[in-house]
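## tool: complex_structure
## caller: assistant
## args:
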Amino acid sequence: MSDDLLVVEDLEKHFPVTRGIIFQKQVASVQAVDGVSFTVKPGETLGVVGESGCGKSTMARCIMRLLDPTGGKVIFDGRDITNLSRAQMRPIRREMMMIFQDPYASLNARKRVGFIVAEALEVHKLGTDAEVKRRVQELLEVVGLNPEHYNRFPHEFSGGQRQRIGVARALAVNPKLIVCDEPVSALDVSVQAQILNLLKDLQQDFGLTYVFIAHDLNVVRHISDRVMVMYLGKVAELAERDKLYAAPKHPYTGALLSAVPIPNPEMGRQRKPVVLEGDVPSPINPPSACRFHPRCPRFHEGHCDVEEPPLYSFSNGHVAACHYPLERWPLTAEEFRKAQSGPTGAKATAEAEA
Amino acid sequence: MALLEVNDLKTYFRTDDGIVKAVDGVSFQVEKGQTLGIVGESGCGKSVTCLTIMGLNAKRNTITSGNALFRGEDLLTMNSRRLREIRGDDVAMIFQDPMTSLNPVHTIGRQLTEAVLLHRDVTKSQARARAVELLKAVGIPRADRRIDDYPHQFSGGMRQRVMIAMALVNDPDLLIADEPTTALDVTTQAQILELMNRLQREFGSAIIIITHDLGVVAETADDVVVMYAARIAEQGTVDEIFKRPHHPYTWGLLGSLPRLDTDTERLVQIPGQPPSLLNPPRGCRFHPRCPYVMNVCKQEEPELKQVTGDHDHLQRCWLDEQTKDREAAKLLHASMAEATS
Amino acid sequence: MFRYLIRRVLWAVVLFVAVTIVSFVIFFIVPVEPARLIAGPQAPPDAVERAKKAYHLDEPVWQQYGRFMKTMIVDGSLGKSLATRQKVNDVVKRAAPVTISLVIGGAILWMLVAVPIGILSALRPRSLLDRAAMVFVLVGISAHPVWIGLILSYFVGYKLNLTPLGGYCDLINPSTDCGGPIDWFHSMILPWVTFMLLFAALYVRMIRANVLETMNEDYVRTARAKGAPESQVMRSHVLRNALLPVVTMLGMDIGLALGGAIFTESVFGLPGLGKVAVEALNGFDLPIVMGITVFATLAIIIFNLAVDLLYAVIDPRIRLS
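## result:
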């Protein structure tokens, strides 16, 4: 569709695993991202959740062309940017910016804040020195920092303030799309709330579009319009926020949701998480067909491990890659008990993983 | 008598910049078989409190006062031989980062049996059998073979299980868990919390769980201590703290949390940053960030006082109880309204 | 593991060729005519020409290098000295034991000194012992080995008359002056001490830093939380991890030092590789220099390989990956 700001089609990023004495030959590949498709409309926030190793950060870097995808397409603002050269990418880089997780490592410690924020402006030659300075001070103010701190170094700021600097840097060139890679996971809750509120305000004020990547389901739910759940490099489920959280279809989404502790002792006591066994398998030799099958409480032998589930469509825009989607949510006590007692498959993976 | 009784615990670190009062007058009790949650943001002193109780702070440059009575014996002043007898036997600890908390050059079996042999008069093979038993109990598949593996051969979640097995290998009466799930993914966290819960039921240990995650506290703790800037802001039973929080900092923490059971467009944000412990603010330590600040807050620090009608619930705030009840009700209402809708 | 070994050996060959080529080429850039050295300063031009032919010095560099490699690999010979006509193999064979005695003995001594001092000063930072060790480190690093050697031989050898002033006594074959293990040991004491001082200082500093760093590791805290006594924490959890990098350093340093401990050998008149190399360089005696280069390169490569293998034995993370 032409009105989508970002279209990702069948995106794939495999890292080669090589072995050899002098001539390295590829013996396997890490299938970090494997056939991910989605779209983002202007002004919306797409949340991406998943556990470590699900490929969400690699995907973000492929969208930004910080990594070259090994397959699929990234179409930004109607233009296929998958195979653009560095020079061709340059004008597009100012339309899409990134905010990183670690506010300590992602700012150059030897540069002043003014310089860090202004860098993109200068790279793209936007304005005279005086204009750049005025713009930087304006940006610092927008993100809630004192504009007079223009000449300070990053170490003089706290973690939350540094993340504000990161936001100001991303905003400097008026981008259309901001990809946020775990922007609040290194921060304390009170500071996290400040940054989340800031991101929401900025979205309203400047009509920004976000791809917001995080492992915290609470945070993603708070900020997103639509949410995509990833598991081992694939899309498990993608839906509007409320639908996904209220009526998840994929058993993995269900397990994730049920695993989140609720800060309410009464509800917490009633909550019975679907405890998945084992760990996320290695993306080097991912399980066959449905990659979730070895840990899935609804595993059907001879189907889930043989035929890869396509993204079945449920209701308007709600898709999930599962042959046996959840009919109900939350599960009944009986279903919980069944899930708890564990399918044969779950034990088998724990064994295999070991 | 409580299993552990901590009275007016203070831990000060001498640094080049001055004295950092990392823990400044903390008191609490832990009963047998109960779980105490200590919450607060980074740097509030929650970890240092537990390291002090365990005697694990570097001796140099540390000034400690107060006492920590474990079954009536003061852990802070007892001689080091007695402390070593208790550590790892009666009181055990799990740390935040399972990736760095195991020695990379020894097999996990060696590290587990070390813990047994230090406290039990058994042969090596008996210690090993005990280690295998515990590894099985914490859900390590094929424990009898994996015991000879090295830490780097385990995933993060599995390593934390090994840490838990190591802590429980001598049936401790008290288990101190310092952010045991912070480094883990949410489904792994669920596994570990479930495991700790089950082991507590089986072994009847008391647990102190330190965390910044209010969700984890709500689900695991019986009693809660909320710490802010080296002091206790509020403490009480878990229901009281979550249903009738009496301190603006607790309100802030609860309100700033995006959560699955409520729907808020805007999170409550606590403005500013936690203060430096080198030079904490005068008066109430929270006053520079408190939306309800009054004149008295800037002058004088409130005592940790009982809430009327509930002698288990202590709080350190000058606001009158009507205001507090009203504000707490508002906060709760928001979440209840959502939960029922 | 086996593949890893093969890869390392192949790299070692590449390294070896590179080092010898560089040494060879450098020699040809130096504006000296070796043929004149062979023929003698007063020799007529045709004698020089003959010498050139005889020693193939008229060929281009790459041909000479090819010839050098060929004789080395096929005949196992490094050629003959231009100045003395001695076989280079014999020269290296005579000089190497001297240097090996000096380096291995020195290494044992410096480890014996550095390990305890490093550990003790890490255990008691800022104590008297630690401060004294820091002074020792500073002196050891700043003082030149020639100066140390001269001072030692003046006081211990000349004034106190406890050791010989210099010279070498063979460990096995007695010569006219001296020989046998006792004389050998006696004559090597001062060179060892001199050689030790520099390295011990470096190692004390490194070991202290490693131990301090390891003591702050989380797993050391875990060990204490288990109730392990401090001695066991140190032995089983701190030292093993802290001394891992020292093994690497030691292997590299010994390999390097075998190339010739030039200063120490010069001061004490030890006929080791360093001394021979200096003399050969002064005389532009390419075959001797190449011979010593080959020996030193091999020593460095072998010791590095040994270190890697040893590391794989003591560090499970390497062994199993």
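## assistant note: The CA atoms of residues 123 and 291 of chain B lie 62 Å apart. Chain B touches chain A through 54 residues (CB under 8 Å). Handing back to user.
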